[in-house]
Amino acid sequence: MLRLPRLALPVVLLLLFFAGVCSADEFVPAQFPSLESVVRVAGPLDFCGEPVPLDNPEVRERIEREILLIQWDRAQMILWMKRTGRYFPHIERMLRLNGMPDDLKFLPVIESALRPTVGSHAGARGIWQFISSTGRKYGLRVDRYIDERRNFVFATKAAVNYLKDLHGMFGAWTLSAAAYNMGEAGLKKAIKQQETDKYYLLHLPEETQRYVVRAIVAKMIMSDPERFGFRLVPGDYYQPVQYDRIRLRCRRYTPVMLVAKAAGTTYKNIRDLNPQILRDTLPLGTHLIFLPKGAAEDFAERYKPLIAEYRAKSHGVVHKVQKGDTLLRIAQRYRISLSELLRRNKLRKNSTIHPGQTLIIRE
User: Fold this and answer.
1) Does residue 224 contact residue 269 with C-beta atoms inside 8 Å?
2) In this predicted model, what pLDDT tens digit does every residue of 17-34 receive, in sequence order?
3) Which of 297, 320, 348, 362 has the highest count of CB atoms within 10 angstroms of its CB?
């Protein structure tokens, strides 16, 4: 009988295991085009119907540089393409409904790698990387409880409106994209100083000079992935999220877990569908909430007894402000911290309170 060395036996068993679970067609040998060939851009190229001047050596070099950089990080590029299956259908529909070029869908790819909750060092958030002030200007709620920049549906609507306004200011989609990146005031100043309104001829901050070019390269690769050595099949792409939407009015702070129970799902699923929710509770007011597909039916009937039971158990306490009251005295009276009192009422230490005002002590 053949005897195997002691150390060889685990290796043989491991090989037998993988031979049993992996069929021959599950692993395909990698076939990459040469880097020299992928940067040979014949053209013509355009972004949103605006021609890319490949006859300009500096522009061609910028495109070649971005191709090489993106092509080098193939794992990142594969994730970009897989995520398009989840987000592009909605973005494409919004652009189509607003009569805007389809190429604009590549902006969130280079902004956030299609990650809806990612943030930047400058405080931008979400798939479209809105800063707080611009997000609020275009209808997004941004506070300690809710940050709608993180919800790709809300953020896409705001981005479409913002880009539409930028196009009205500058008259070209390349300039609109540049302004989206650097701000309209800075771009207007550059155009005035340099006496040209051609994106490819403007001297702009390095990030903005690369911005549109990176979107063009993302479009090139995603429109013809096999040319660049990417061979994804339809099943490789992530599927669009299916959801229902409801409007939920909260008269008090409401635990997210109650929403999950009424929807017949998990806390995690509600938070994943609603990345705009930043805490365990929903604040006072009316909220547009995303639920798993089919969960909206009879949601109200399931929710009412749950919220009634919660309110009965929680014994919410409020305080009506009297003359002479201060926030510190109220906190001390009810034996809660000042910071907790401020949090529950969305106040600051220097906030002014008035007689007759109602403050939440316990939710």
Assistant:
1) no
2) 444 444 545 777 777 777
3) 362
